[in-house]
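Write out this protein's structure.
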Amino acid sequence: MRRTRVLSLATLLLCTSVLAGAVPAGATPHGVPSAPLRILLTNDDGYDAPGIRLLFQRLSSAGYDVTVVAPLTNQSGTGTKMLSSASVAVEHPAPRVWAVGGTPGDAVAFGLAEVFADRAPDLVVSGTNFGPNVAALATHSGTVGGAIAALESGVPAIAVSTGGLTAEVPRLVLNAMRPTADFAVGLIDRLRSRAKHGRLLPPGLGLNVNHPVVGPDGTGTARGTALTHQDPQLLLQPRYTDAGDGTWKVRIDEVPRPVQRGSDAEAVAAGKVSIAPITPNWDAGADRLTGMTALLAGLRP
């Protein structure tokens, strides 16, 4: 089942260039005006972070009906954490902006239950994040966590991130958010034109999109797109030093390792946009059951 979904997605996205022939957001593939696509936009950097503000502007300019429902403060690295408190603070600083005092998952949950209580959005977009969310970074990413929360509720979702595998000048990442936003709009245009008024993505399947930093000023065009899988490697390694007072100092080191062929990390390292299908669970899939059956044969409580 999972393999079929991925192959159908590969056909959808990569038979031709993802951005080629994109249909304007305000029209159907036949040029007949249609209702704007309704998008819940979230992130993990905070509701007023540069990436989400830029993506809001670009999506709105493309004709999409966008509402921001995002964390009140920076929630980077919170992963899929949500619903950890009996109450949540919510601010409404602008007509199309809601700031939720919790994680990206909390923001999406509130958005679906309250802001979009009348009808679920057509799509949840999470990002664009400052820095990449590939390999093990994706597992612990609040940006990806926001997309997972949407998928769990049956809403199509795309996580979007900007950055390479090495520490980069912040200004370059901020600059690279511009082509990232352009790519995200083109991708959504493509999905909508192919959906023909149906779901934008197969049920239970989302996308984790990572755009590299290209060019001396970060605004360069990526060297193509790649449909990828999540690289299993760790990219960061914590190091601990006993401070002698009951606390330990923490240092985070980069751990450069060879990237796996066909992975998100390989694509970003090559200057390509990585598009990795994601699901809202950690099920290893039916193809892994055979080996586990033999391993656990005869086990009794």
